[in-house]
Design a protein that fits this description.
Blueprint: E1 2-10, H1 22-42, E2 48-58, H2 65-76, E3 85-91, E4 94-97, E5 103-105, E6 121-125, E7 129-140
Parallel strand pairs: 2-3
Antiparallel strand pairs: 1-7, 2-7, 4-5, 4-6
Length: 149
């Protein structure tokens, strides 16, 4: 039997990748995000085995799903998170235009109204990075399993 505990945690993580080339920077970004997610979840589950972690990630966070999954599997080995499912809800980027009032779903990271072309817009969705919930097993382990280093 599993229990579900809602976790609403903002993970606004600036990641400085320095002079690493763009193909490697993507993986560094996802690795750092997964480390923050793992630490946050492990701090809250009281030595219980986690079966699922649900995230809500906005389009503007530029997270590569395969890199995130790979990083999660790498970091959670030998922890209470090992074997847990990382469930990601992708949130599209939408803006509201101050000029015409229209809502536009963005395909490119350009803040512009799709109806009138105005740049006077407000980002309404797409910048989220939330741990929505996690499912944990009922049994409690003898001691803590260390979080990823």
């Amino acid at each position: 039997m599993s229990a579900s505990y809602p976790l609403v945690v903002r993970c606004d993580l600036p990641v400085n990748v320095g002079t690493v080339d763009a193909t490697k920077a993507v993986h560094v970004h996802e690795l750092a995000l997964c480390e923050a997610i793992a630490r946050t979840v492990l701090d809250r589950v009281e030595h219980r085995r986690v079966t699922r972690v649900a995230l809500r990630i906005g389009h503007f966070r530029q997270v590569v799903p395969d890199a995130l999954t790979f990083s999660w599997e790498l970091l959670t080995t030998d922890t209470d998170l090992e074997g847990s499912e990382l469930e990601v809800e992708h949130v599209p980027a939408t803006v509201e235009c101050s000029e015409c009032g229209a809502f536009t779903t963005l395909q490119l990271p350009v803040l512009v109204c799709g109806t009138c072309g105005s740049h006077t817009v407000t980002l309404r969705t797409g910048n989220e990075f939330l741990i929505v919930s996690c499912d944990v097993a009922e049994e409690v382990r003898d001691g803590p399993v260390p979080p990823p280093q």
